[in-house]
Amino acid sequence: MPSSGGDHCCLPLRQPSWMRSLLRKKVTISDVPEELLLHILSLVPRKYLVLSCRRVCSRWRDLVDLPILWKHKCRRMGFRMEGSDSGLPDWMTFCFRQSQRNLVKNPCGEAFFDFWESENQPHWEVSKHVLLWDCTQFYERCLRIPHPLREIQRCFVCNRSGIKRQRITLREEGYSDRLMDESRPKIIVKDWHYYSWKCHSQLRVKLLSAGLEVLQECTLPNAPFHHGLWDEISHTFEGYPSGVRHIDLEHKVEATDLVKITGTRVTIDPEGTQEEGAATAEKSGFPNIFNLCLPAMSRL
């Protein structure tokens, strides 16, 4: 009895010879087209691109060195494209620098009070005495005693009560709305404080929407300071709501003697923390370009 027309669809079809040959071949990573491999590598965090992927083979090394890979990576990470197409150092440097860049303007008072709004201005001043002159060598030799990095040459000083503020607009700094809403990268805040007995200072950080609604906030420090010593305070924002467009910083001081503040930092890294980026530059024997693209404070 002849089979019906619908039965023919169940018969196995003979594969073409070229397909049978392809199926018999053992496909390896070497058979992946260059365009596809570049796309895959652009998804790898830059730390592992340098420390691992670049050392796999000569082909991968050449691909990691391509400017187009780093340009595509910057675009995928949501950065505003400000570089040029002149060669590898531009896009690689831009990628690392943008990830580790301090968004706080005039963090140590090098430009006096530019970019800061202050209340009780007469109570604030800028000092070159970050460490007491007779204790500088003591601090440097006793590495376990926390103190600001040697590059920090100035600090804000308040001898009464005072407030100073700064607002960071993320879009102006190159961080797109899509990056902040979809990736929600870690926002890392750090600050150095020093105060005398019976003095108090705090840093209040707010994540604001486009309409300046507070989406999340924190107040530092959350532990007592050591009087007469520098302390570094830090906080990492994670899992915050979408819609963050601004970051507000507010230093509030209540002092009967003096309070010093310096080295205020806000960094946004879609692929990790500041320490990871610094460790990458230090461990990698590849290019001094990493020393060029990471700020001096991150290298020490």
TrEMBL record:
InterPro entries: F-box-assoc_dom, F-box-like_dom_sf, F-box_dom, F-box_only, Galactose-bd-like_sf. GO terms for cellular component: cytoplasm; SCF ubiquitin ligase complex. It comes from the Eukaryota. One of its GO terms (biological process) is glycoprotein catabolic process. Pfam families: F-box-like, FBA. SUPFAM superfamilies: F-box domain (SSF81383), Galactose-binding domain-like (SSF49785). Residues 91-275 form the FBA domain. Residues 26-73 form the F-box domain. PROSITE patterns: FBA (PS51114), FBOX (PS50181). PANTHER family: F-BOX ONLY PROTEIN 6 (PTHR12125:SF12), F-BOX ONLY PROTEIN 6-LIKE PROTEIN (PTHR12125). This is F-box domain-containing protein. It comes from Anolis carolinensis.
